[in-house]
User: Fold these one by one.
Assistant:
Number 1:
Amino acid sequence: MAKVPYGINGPFIGRVGNTIGYILNGINVIRSIGAFHGEYTPKQLANYQRMGLISSLSTVIQEFLKFGFAAVAAPTKQGHTNHSISINKEKAVKGVYPNQETDFSKLIVAQGTVAIPKNPMVKVLNNKLEYRWEADLQTEGAESSDQVMLLAYFPESQKAIVMASGSRRTMEKEILEIPGSNKDRKVETYMAFVSDDRKNASNSVYLGQLIIPATAETAQKKPAEAVKTKDHRLKLTAETEDAIDLIPKPYKDKDGYSDLYHFGSKYTEQTEKMRIVSPLLSLFKDQINKGFEHGDRRTTPFNKAVSRNINGAIGGGDRVYNIYFPALVFSAGKRETAWATKLTLHSENEVRVKWEVPKTAKMSLIGDDEPHFIFYNRTRDIQCATYQTSKRRDLEASIELSGARKGDIIYAYMFFVAHDKKSVSNTDYLGCIEVE
């Protein structure tokens, strides 16, 4: 159903038959939806994969792109995200379908006529990235009022820290603080300058991939009671008095995988996968209704969740499949995700989750976000958590486990919902605990 908010002679918004109307950057756009019959060609499939890679990345770094492409995207009314996709899907993807991947060294995140940073460099200092450059005010397009823009992208977690307005060009230095973690992380780094009026930028400069080491104090807190089992899962004892700052992480062998599902019937592969994941997701319909409420209105939140998890969390083939629990998702959106999460078994039936907020994020805008938690008792195939209402600004929440018994395996997840309910974050996997 379409709406006509501007009167009968104005633009319509919505769908009428196979025609879609919407407003993009102040311009009314009308397009048709055509039915495709037949098989996609290898060239089409490769293009779709390239678009998917760059689209998901552009969504995460859109705050940087908004100013980085202000001078080139705004005049065409294309939009900064669409501009990023159009240039990077050809320039910044390497490999041959179906094994294409992002080439971060060729990724462009800013374009304009402002002078680029001269002799830029970045290095790791504890849990910080120190960026340096030379002011070089004699170069055409360089102004002392220009501000540095910094981007640190973490490809493994698909998260980013953005500083859209840092030090002036003449300061020749800026620090980007990174939340702690209990493991080493790869980070792709970029720099650009933006003009004082935010309407123009320099071309972006790729500074390379760095490794940010695990936070030292996190490693020192590893409890003596934690022991490795045969399947590499870490046991947490409920009798531990002190908070445990260890988050069990997925391993590449058995840990995190369900038992095998075998189909002897003649269902299609899509149907077989759906029959595996749908009963599990049905346990969390309330959370999924919030986590997938936005986006495509032509399908239900539950169906969107099923589709995402079929493609991302179900492995195998030839009628034999399994679920990779750390890859399950219960939400999808553009809101800031949780950083540096820590899952702690505090008592026999209480779990505590802590998280951080990057200093570049504006707490005034995201502080009232509501965290939503999913605790799945794999052993008993039940949802097993209740929790008090909290906010992102609290940086922690307590969750009471219900029905958990000795030996139960429990997987934990979280996502944030904006205070106005208009946006959500992607799902963060918190870890796996075994009640002992």
Number 2:
Amino acid sequence: MNATRQLVFSKFSLLDISLFILIISSVGTIIQIWGGSWDVTSHVLREPESFFTPSHTLLYLGISLLVISAVVGLMLIKKPEIKNNTSLPGAFKLLFIGALMTVIAGPSDFLWHNAFGFDGLLSPSHITLVTGMLINSVAVFMGLYRLQRYIEHKQKQRLIQFFLIPSLSSLWYTSIWYTFMFALPFSESDFFNFNLDSYSATIIACIVLPLINSIIFLSASKTLNNRFGSGFVIASLLIGINIFTGIIPAKDLLGQILPWYIVTNVGVFLLADIILNSHILKTYTLRYKKMIAGTLVGSIFYFLNYPMLTWTLGNLLGTDLVSINEVLPTFLNTIVPLSILTLLAGALMGFVGSLTFSRIEHWFDLKIYQNREKNVSLEENIG
């Protein structure tokens, strides 16, 4: 085992290995959140429930990729070149913590299913799983972003930029689902009821989800150097994941307004990207562009999170949502009052999100993670 490990570490640059495992991790984060979201939709559709389902298979395939990456990451941070001369160890440690939590959640979920059968969304094993998934997503983004500082090869730089897109999309979607854990009324089972009341769930959704939209959209644009289309591409991937895991599996039950869903959300994110990353609004400073874009993307959180948020906000209005068959009619019948409520609340929190981002924007300055030996290229010295 030691001989094999030494062979791998001697054949490739340590930075190359770091890049490879972070790319694998980025793929793993997309696969795990895809499987997790699909699994919830399967629950809502009341498909036959067991631990061994296609959605669980996809979920734990993603987790397996992350576990393998985390183990290799632990090996890497023991190397003095990585440990002492880069800021990567923090990301690899987080990756290990997240992977460990998801590994613990797997058998725990299996035991919970065996003991209690159909389980709610906010079960102990599920909250452990989603917390681990969120930590994984943060770790992968952190690792890829910091790695840019130490790799000078142009093609590798472009590779990092490319895989920052799925890593940010998975971080965004995982953050949304972490909020859903508390906002959705899916946590009642035969043995336990962890559902929040409709008012508390609505307040959580109306505060946290537009904040997430605003902060991550602005962070995504900053991460990709505010190039035109950067935030839009990441948001579009997010929209695509939601379509294929939350809308299409339900077919005609939810998909009749799919063209409207695509045009509305894609259109708003494109407009926000134009405002933020193009030269059209020349008279506005970047600070005001961020405020406008953050407010705009925050305002559409209800439409972006169709169909799931219809369960939360529909309950607020007293609609009797007991099955997925009633989601689309409820969405259409309550569209006027809920649009007024969510657009106003979302715009306000999106604006707050833009102000919050301005306070943390310095986190995205790569100079913070500059190598102690400023005049030495790590890529020339690590190998």
Number 3:
Amino acid sequence: MTYRELCLRLERAGIENAEWDAVLLLERFCKANPTLVRLTPERDYTEPALEAAVQKREVRYPLQYLLGEWTFYRQTYEVSPACLIPRSDTEILVEEAIRLLPRGAYFADLCTGSGCIAVSVLCERPDTRCVAVDKFPGTLEVARRNGERQGVDDRMECLCADVLLPTYVSDRPLDAILSNPPYIPTKDLEGLAPEVGAEPQAALDGGEDGLLFYRKILQMHGERLKPEGFFLFEVGYDQAEAVGQLGARAGFPVCRILKDYGGNQRVVYLAREEKDAW
């Protein structure tokens, strides 16, 4: 199979960035040089693993799972079907956490998934420590390996717990709670793109109105924050104001909304009182 043939197969499968996918697949399964791939589009690649991967991609299996890793912020993370795929929009949350966390901070990353939020913050802020929480042991194991991979595992406790329950998270007060929880309304799950539908449903399903996790986290874990502590939530494009209202009712009336690179409201900051950092 040549690069040109591979691009054509992916285009016919409805993959928007077929050429980019093709280069990454050839690099991963054939150890091909990305520059040379484009310069020699008629070169034939015969590795069986490539053909198997292409067949999966043709039915819209996520590219990231095929590659086994994905770049997020300034790091490269292991990804698997056990966790949500890291997305660039979430980097807004990471950037704000890096900026706002006080010196020597201790924070929680709830619904940690691959651990990309917690690990990226720890990498950029070596003065901080965190507890990364997820309900599923297999998912938490991916986060743990990513912490080891980036050399921050000595500052990252991994805790298997359900954040929807008033369960133990930490016996220490927290400077911040960060979370990219499931936020897609249950009724909208069936209409997702095939690639998104292949990700774990538990990482997507935010309940009837998409706000279940925000409501519960605010109710059950807000008391773990220091008086000057704050929340940073990733939210759906139309959920920011609703999450702000939930925060106000839970005793966190200060609300700031940040937009992602596409101009959508994506991150909500909630606190009890104003901070000079803003």
